[in-house]
Each structure stands twice: as structure tokens, then as C-alpha cells.
Design a protein that fits this description.
Elements (H helix, E strand, L loop, with lengths): L1 H26 L1 E5 L5 E5 L1 H54 L4 E3 L6 E3 L13
Antiparallel strand pairs: 1-2, 3-4
Helix pairs in contact: 1-2
Length: about 130
């Protein structure tokens, strides 16, 4: 999900900038009819610049929000990973203390190993 947010933020920034230019170009023209009935279009630079800046700001804001969401998801993933690792370490220490009978259970594959063995016989996990 975090990678989707990062890619989406870059796509929004690129396409949004192009869209801002098109929108400013379209809305920045004033149409008038001359005395002879001819349609004339003139660029109103003030309107063009204001429309572009407003659209570009909203695009940039969306880019920042999506980038921040990607960072939040990555940090959440790191926290979950560290909690999982500390839980598995606690499980190992608990299994070592409760299994004074000479065995320990591998947290990776749940294989019961002898206490004299430092590495799991099935998956190679080091005790």
C-alpha cells in the first residue's frame, strides 16, 4: 500500500501540473465580439496566472498528503515488524524457561528441538 501511495503521489504531481497548465490556458482567455461580428480571444494574464497557481497549489497539496500517507504506512510497517520480532524473542525465552525438560520450539516453523541443538533442524533458525 505504501508503494501505491508513493507512485500515486508522483502521478498526481505530474498529471496535475499538466492539467493546471491546460486549465489556466483555457480559463485565461477572454472572448469578445468585435464590431464586425468577428469573435476575438485575448489572453488575460492575471486570470491565467491565478488559475494556474490555484490549481498547482491544490495538486501540490494532494502530492504532500499522499507522500505523507506513504511514510506513515512505512513507519507503521516498521513498528509492526519490531513488535513481531520482540514477541518472537519473548516466545523463545518463555519456551526455554518452560521447557526445562530439554526441548525448545522454533518460532519460525514450530518444530520441537532438543536444548542441546542451537539451530532448528527443519528451517535453520538459530536459537
Amino acid at each position: 500500500m505504501k508503494d501505491i501511495c508513493r507512485v500515486l503521489s508522483k502521478v498526481v504531481l505530474a498529471l496535475g501540473t499538466i492539467g493546471s497548465m491546460i486549465l489556466a490556458g483555457t480559463l485565461g482567455k477572454e472572448t469578445s465580439i468585435s464590431a464586425y461580428g468577428a469573435i476575438q480571444q485575448e489572453r488575460n494574464w492575471g486570470t491565467t496566472i491565478i488559475v494556474f497557481l490555484a490549481a498547482a497549489f491544490s495538486v501540490f497539496l494532494m502530492f504532500v498528503i499522499l507522500s505523507a500517507l506513504g511514510e506513515i504506512l512505512e513507519n507503521q510497517e516498521r513498528i509492526m515488524y519490531s513488535q513481531t520480532n520482540s514477541a518472537s524473542k519473548n516466545k523463545i525465552s518463555n519456551s526455554n524457561s518452560s521447557n526445562s525438560g530439554g526441548t525448545w520450539t522454533c518460532p519460525e516453523c514450530d518444530t520441537v528441538n532438543s536444548n542441546s541443538v542451537r539451530m532448528c533442524k527443519d528451517c535453520g533458525y538459530t536459537k
